[in-house]
Amino acid sequence: MLRRGFVILRRFSTAGPKGGPSSRFQYTIRAAFGKYLLVTNTVSSGVLMLLGDVVEQEFHHDFKARGDEPRYDYARLGRMFLVGLGMGPVHHYYYGFINKLWPLRDMVTVSKKILADQIVMSPICIAQFFYTLGLLEQKPVKRINEEFLGKFGAVYTMDWCVWPPTQFINFYLIPCRYQVIYINFVTMIYNVFLSYIKHEY
To answer: What is the DSSP letter of 139?
Structure first.
């Protein structure tokens, strides 16, 4: 029994990367964007959504806050993080689906993906953002509906300005496994606008 345990430990110890820190780093990156891609896409979506709201709250504090107002609304940051976590799997499976549906990288295929993104995915993501946040804020559905309908036009108009050129780069140049993380980084900047529209518009 003891000998069997040593054999299992030896197999486990030799299953990881060989070499020093550089090899371990490369192994971690391969795992993050391979076997654990869903986890990477989900966690990065949550963290970068949170960071976008941190930036917006910084702007608010510097330019609009009263002297006694706290710098950060931590409950709000937590809600934004949860919304981002919820969006991560949606993006993960959506990009996997359209890359299988339209695997080429020519101009016609990229145009199809951009149109699908703007006409189908964009309204879904906007709705997910407002309704998930509204439920986390414990607002009644009627108020969430009113807020969504009142702010959808401004957000969707900005979507058409930001996402087609962003998605052209994504679909034409970025390898499939990195597409969601690329989108998440752009979304971190875009979330400054989203957070402003949601909380201060």
So the answer is: -
**Residues sharing a CB contact under 8 Å with residue 178, sequence separation 6 or more, in sequence order:** 33
CA of 77: how far to CAs of 17, 30, 51, 80, 182, in Å?
Answer: 37, 30, 8, 5, 22
Residue 22: pLDDT above 80? no
| Token reading at 167 | 């998605």
Kindly report, residue by residue over 50-104, the tens digit of the pLDDT: 998 998 888 877 776 566 778 889 999 999 999 999 999 999 999 999 999 999 9
CA 83 to chain CA centroid, nearest Å = 9
Picking from 122, 121, 106, the residue whose alpha carbon sits closest to that of residue 168 is 106
Query: d(Cα 149, Cα 201) in Å, to the nearest integer?
Result: 13
pTM of the model: 0.81
Helix axes 122-136, 141-173, angle to 10 degrees: 140
113 dihedral zone (left: phi>0; alpha: psi -120 to 50; beta): alpha
Q: What is the pLDDT of residue 9?
A: 36
- Indicate the residue type of 165: P
What is the rounded CA–CA span in Å between residue 124 and residue 118? 10
Q: Sign (positive/negative) of CA torsion 156, 158, 160, 162?
A: negative
Q: How far apart, in whole angstroms, are the C-alpha atoms of residue 136 and residue 186?
A: 24
Nearest Cα to 46, choosing from 188, 179, 178, 158? Answer: 188
